[in-house]
Design a protein that fits this description.
Elements: E1 3-13, E2 19-26, E3 37-43, E4 49-55, H1 60-66, E5 68-74, H2 81-88, E6 94-101, E7 112-118, H3 122-135, E8 140-147, H4 155-167, E9 171-177, E10 188-189, H5 196-201, E11 207-213, H6 215-227, E12 235-239
Parallel strand pairs: 7-8, 7-11, 8-9, 9-10, 11-12
Antiparallel strand pairs: 1-2, 1-6, 2-5, 3-4, 3-6
Bound molecules: flavin-adenine dinucleotide (FAD).
C-alpha cells in the first residue's frame, strides 16, 4: 500500500462551520484522476486511530505543481473522522494519505457534462469541474448542487462557481436549497431533481453525468435521467 504524510494547511468553511474545504500539502505526490478518492488516516488527541475515504476535490495538475490536495468534508457527528477534519485537527498537523482508487473518473470524450451533487457529494465533482475549466474541452457544463440550507454552502466554492458561470455562457451553476426559508435570489427551492428539465434542455445528447451524494437522491436522479434521454452508461455515480 502506498502512502504519504501530508500537512493540513487550510480550511475554507461554510457559514455554519459544518462543512469545510480542507487542503493538505503532501510530502510526496502520487498519480490520480479527478473524481477519485483517497483514504485519510489520523489519530485523535487521545490516541484513537481514524481512517476514512474522502473524494479528492482538486486536480492532479494542481497536485503536481503545488503538492496540494483537498476535499470537501461535511461534519456528520462527533468523535469521528469528519469532526476531526472539520473542527479539531490543528493547522500544520500531519495526516497520512493513502493512494487513491475507484471508478468515478471520465474519459473526457463528451462535449457536455452534467454534475449533480448533494452535501459532501460535491467533493469529486469540484475536481472534475476544475479540470474541464482548465482544459476548456467542453461545449456545455451544468453544475447542480443541493444543500438543506445556504449556511451549509462553502462560500469560496459558491463564489467561484458563480464567477465562472457569469463569465462563460457555456457554464450553468444551479444551487438548490431544500429547507432554506430565506432563499437567496439566485437560489432554487426544493430538491436537485426539480432542476433536471432545465439542465437537460441546455445539454447535448452526448453528455456525461456525474452524480454523487445521498443514496436516495442518486437512485432517484438516475431513474429520472434514464426516463428522459440519458443512457445509463453515461451516468457515473457514487453514494455516500
Ligand atoms: C468513496 C467514498 C468517498 C467519500 N468522500 C467523502 C467526501 O469527499 N467528503 C465527506 O464529507 N465524506 C465522504 N465520504 C464519507 C466519509 O468517508 C465518512 O463516512 C464520513 O465523513 C463520516 O465519517 P465519521 O467518522 O465522521 O462518522 P461515523 O463515525 O462513521 O458516523 C457518525 C454518524 O454519522 C452518520 N453518517 C455517516 N456518514 C454520513 C453522511 N454522509 N451523511 C449523514 N450522516 C452520516 C453515521 O450513520 C453515524 O451515525 C466518502 C465515503 C466514501 C465511501
Amino acid at each position: 500500500m502506498q502512502k504519504t504524510q501530508a500537512t493540513l494547511i487550510k480550511r475554507e468553511y461554510s457559514p455554519s462551520w459544518e462543512v469545510a474545504f480542507v487542503t493538505f500539502q503532501a510530502e510526496h505526490i502520487f498519480p490520480f484522476s479527478e473524481g477519485q478518492f483517497m483514504m485519510i488516516s489520523s489519530e485523535t488527541e487521545s490516541g484513537k486511530k481514524l481512517k476514512k475515504p474522502y473524494s479528492i476535490a482538486t486536480t492532479s495538475r494542481y497536485f503536481e505543481q503545488e503538492k496540494e490536495i483537498g476535499c470537501v468534508v461535511k461534519q456528520v457527528g462527533v468523535w469521528g473522522m469528519s469532526e476531526h477534519l472539520v473542527s479539531w485537527l490543528p493547522i500544520w498537523w500531519t495526516v497520512t494519505l493513502v493512494w487513491p482508487v475507484w471508478h468515478y473518473v471520465d474519459s473526457w470524450e463528451h462535449p457536455s457534462y452534467l454534475f449533480i451533487s448533494v452535501w459532501s457529494g460535491l467533493s469529486p465533482n469540484v475536481g472534475l469541474f476544475d479540470q474541464l475549466i482548465h482544459t476548456q474541452a467542453f461545449s456545455k457544463i451544468v453544475l447542480i448542487h443541493g444543500e438543506r440550507f445556504f449556511s451549509h454552502h462553502v462560500l469560496s466554492l459558491h463564489e467561484r462557481f458563480t464567477e465562472i458561470s457569469l463569465s462563460d455562457e457555456r457554464v450553468s451553476y444551479i444551487p438548490v436549497f431544500s429547507k432554506e426559508k430565506n432563499l437567496p435570489k439566485w437560489g432554487r427551492e426544493w430538491y436537485v431533481q426539480s432542476t433536471l428539465d432545465e439542465a437537460l434542455a441546455d445539454l447535448w445528447n452526448d453528455c456525461s453525468c456525474f452524480l454523487c451524494g445521498k443514496p436516495e437522491m442518486v437512485d432517484d436522479v438516475r431513474r429520472l435521467l434514464s426516463e428522459k434521454w440519458m443512457d445509463k452508461e453515461d451516468i457515473t455515480f457514487e453514494k455516500y
